[in-house]
Amino acid sequence: MPAISVKTFAGERPKVDPRLLPNESSSKAYGCHFDNGNLSPLKRPSLTGIAVIPNAKTIYQYLNEYWFAWDKPVNAVASPIANDPWQRVYFTGDGYPKVTNNVIFSGSNMPASAYRLGIQSPETAIIAVVSEDANDEVDPNDDETRYYTHTFVTEQGEEGPPGEASARIDIRYPDEEGTYVSLALSPPNVNASNITHRRIYRTATGGGIADYLFVAEIPISQNQFVDDIPTDELGSSLDTYDYEMPNENMKGLTSMANGIFAGFFDSTVCFSESYLPYAWPTGYQQTTEHDIVTIAALGNTLAVLTEGYPYLFSGINPDSMAGQKLESNQACTSARSAVIVNGSLIYASPDGLVGLTSGGLTSLTRQVITREQWQQYQPETIEAYHQEGRYLAFYGPELDKAFIFDPSTGDFRHFTATANCGFNSLVDDALYICQGANLSKWESSPSYMAYEWRSKDFSANDLSFACAMVKGVNLNLAGLRIFADEAEVLHLAPGEVPLSAFRLPNTRGDSWSFEVYGQATIHSVSIATTMREVAA
Description:
- The protein contains three helices and 46 strands.
- The protein is mainly beta.
């Protein structure tokens, strides 16, 4: 005899007519979990007791203990240097690019302080004066023609690009006793990068093109230096010629493999020197056809999502990045919709969710949801996170609506919750969300949400089902509605669902469905014409 039996449960596929859904799929899934195929409620977030600034838009966990918070979208990245003694964190989105460390971060609102990322070149050239004895009887065949330059250095030993060369100095007896050059030095016009020292360099040959060799490092407060160092005692060559500061409008900071950082402004992609996040040569920049929305690292590949075509930039060195434009019109509608889940970058496009890997692009929801249905999720507002292999998204102007998309099954489920922002912690594999000024841990509360799950429409051809049975745990927490031709046939409120098979009112219908709601764990729901069938 005909019977309805649902023993595994799954989410929604809005594009598919309810009568054509697989048996386990739902026409409505709200507040549901589907662990082990059962239907169960989502746990609520639990308060951590940690408070951050009100209405934070970005949070970041520092040293597994402290929480940074900003009132705007910010991208923060930890230092790529192993065992960094300064435990630096670099971030963009809060004005010009910045860096904080374990000395200056602490305060009532963290990070309490930060320096500007990068080191400027000296604005004023060195003024060099040769000792009188050295200049005596100078002729056209001088032993040495010398130029000087200098660089600024931070407390962390980060060295910036050189300033302009000094005027030419001609020295007849460069290495004789009594020969020296007096240098006059100017302080930086602005010191937002924690500059504490400068390094002095000079050329060391008398003709042709000479490299600059290290002379000395002195405190930034010192404005005079006497150079009487012999040529054979000079240090290594200057190698920071193109260590430029990042563009002041750069955002989207991302850490790639091999210690390379990436960022962007307008339609320009920027790459840093490997393991030197303060050095951003303009020679490493590349452009895209449309303005960039966000970027994300996939190993040695940088995914660049734009207002038009997506791009992939690949390479193991920043000076050899090769760009590939993907001929797909899947633009990114929201920077914060882009999340890496199981090695794939998932983001919101105008048509639905898109998955991007180093191998290319795939539409994840084409068979699940129509473009018109997708617009109800207001994709331009989506802010998403990864959660146990799933894509968890908040949307709406107040971010007070949410859905979960499971890329392994291709279905949706919904719930109501508010999150100003969130952070995926790798330390404890947990998602933290910010609600107002309170920090909560996702799905860690002992209390549960109330779920609603409605089945597909089962075709019955004017059939009268006589009985039903629900199996599960804590059935007293479950309610049940049964429908025939969209009309409610039976409603059992929580506490009324029997533990054994039960009779249905005498009703006929061409289409049957049921809805379970509450907080119980449901193993199966059966509807049939005989008691033997539902109990099987």
